Amino acid sequence: VLDVAEKSNIPYQLSLIEGGATDARAVHLHGRGVASVVFGIPTRYIHSHAAVMHTDDYDAMLRLLVEVVSALGPEEAKDLLKAD
Q: pTM score, two decimals?
């Protein structure tokens, strides 16, 4: 994902959720583990009826998601499914 973002010149930032979680947490730990990534957008008041985000962040995340899915082919899928 980071390689795709850099190759496509899409801005990104990494973060760590110290409290709370996403559904990816449970999926990531299931069985042997499942490759997971969370595409998140910095948002204020996320659990209210008036969440606020910057449209540039939304547009960049959408572009990144499209580029990542477009970059996945059979070889990349095999690499993601390899057991360590």
A: 0.73
Give the whole-angstrom CA distance, residue 74 versus residue 23. Answer: 26
Q: Which residues of 9-44 are buried (b: 16+ CB within 10 A; e: fewer)?
A: ebeeeeeeeeeeeeebeeeeeeeeeeeeeeeeeeee
pLDDT at 2: 93
The CB density around residue 64, as the number of other CB atoms within 10 Å, is 19
DSSP letters of 42-76?
--BSTTSTT-B--HHHHHHHHHHHHHHHHH--HHH
